[in-house]
Amino acid sequence: MNLKHKANTTQKKTTASANRNKKTYLLPWLCILMLSVSILHPAAAQPLIVHAAGTGGIKGNNLPAGYVTEQQMKLANPWTDTNEMPLFNVMRKAQSGQRVTIALIGGSITKGTMSTGTRDESMNKKLTYFDYFTNWWYKTFPKADLLFVNAGISATDSYLGVHRVQKDVLDRKPDLVLVEFAVNDKKTAYHRQAYENLVRKILDSPTKPAVMLLFMSKLNGWSCQLQQAKIGSHYHLPMLSYANVMKDMIGKGIYTMEELSGDAIHPSALGSAVIGEILVRYLDSIQKKSLGQVSYKKAPSTYVTSKKYGSAKLLSCKDIKIQRMGTFERSSKSQIFPDNLTTGSGNGDLTFTVTGKNIGILFAQQINGRGGQFDVYVDGKKTATIDADNSGGRHNKPGSVPCYSSNTKKTHTVRIVRNQKSSGRALTIYGVLVSN
């Protein structure tokens, strides 16, 4: 998901009571302004940061209610044997007024992209699920020093997510991370492995954050919920399903498809309110239990798949050792992924070396019809094909493809050359995905 706006406010205490009262009055409105700007200008080179220190934030004026029934809440949270203790600890920390950092990583829905539904004109507020989620924390813990990190990037999956989570999320030392990739992932073995490695990388990070999983769905029912829920169940993680609730609402005629989404993928303002209420009511239930005594269940050390991307990282094009540029030139086509390599003519024929066990390529998929197909050779053997053509798509978007995997860390020579049958000649490489 493509972020282009960065917001960061810091509220400092002063000794003068007049200044303190003035700041306490103004900051809730500044928070509203920042959240609104994040919707209007959602793309930035860094994750969106929203900070509110001990002010009560927006004071809960925008919390949704009345969309989801008790039965639908059971559909949203049907999983048992969940370890809620990490969430309790986060809430206790917030209750005591300490700094609490909460991060969200996912695709365009997490970033804040909304479609226009047929009932949206009747909605008083047109807010994203990120807005509702943050509102709850502001309202429930008015004395907490809250920092929110929105690391959603449009059209990205957990394979890219596991390579960027360190820089975009974990370096900020989060207490809680919400993961949303059920729509953007595919039902493949490598997405299943990437998703588990993403979850494990978060769980194993130094701050040992609590992890929540959110499962979205397209209107046609497409979702990787089943695949991802098996991962979540293995680690006893809290999980919430908008997919289950949406299916029930449409099946019972409570809301139509056109009311919940205007493009069959992104939720409308109404759909976002439904997601928001699911999150808010679940967090309410956790908060009520957070002061009680609950036995702690340690997450299992075993994997459902295997440990493959534990050290995953994204290298920019300036971080690789280029041996031959061919027809590629250095460029800055993306603000999110700077330092690119671009070709628009010829055969490309880029050659570079990189060290690791697993290698992938991050590139731009173009809607202008000029994107081509380029073959990837690792140590002289063809291992993958990059398809940069996204003709007919809604927008240019990042694409990623795994190119090489082994059990041995070594330095490899990678060559990227245009396929002879490709009519398109353009390719922009954003970076190289590497793990050891």
Overview of the structural elements:
This protein is α+β, with helices and mostly antiparallel strands. It is built from eleven helices and 15 strands. It has helices at 17-40, 70-76, 85-95, 108-111, 129-140, 158-168, 189-203, 225-234, 242-251, 257-260, 269-289; strands at residues 48-53, 99-106, 145-152, 176-180, 210-215, 239-241, 313-316, 321-324, 329-331, 340-343, 350-365, 373-378, 381-387, 397-418, 427-435. The strands form two sheets. Strands 7, 8, 9, 10, 11, 12, 13, 14 and 15 form a nine-stranded antiparallel beta sheet that branches. The chain has a six-stranded mixed beta sheet with strand order 1-3-2-4-5-6, sandwiched between helices. The longest helix has 24 residues, at 17-40. The chain is globular and about 60 Å long. Mean pLDDT is 88; it is low at 1-44 and 55-60.
Topology:
Blueprint: H1 17-40, E1 48-53, H2 70-76, H3 85-95, E2 99-106, H4 108-111, H5 129-140, E3 145-152, H6 158-168, E4 176-180, H7 189-203, E5 210-215, H8 225-234, E6 239-241, H9 242-251, H10 257-260, H11 269-289, E7 313-316, E8 321-324, E9 329-331, E10 340-343, E11 350-365, E12 373-378, E13 381-387, E14 397-418, E15 427-435
Helix pairs in contact: 2-9, 5-11, 6-7, 7-8
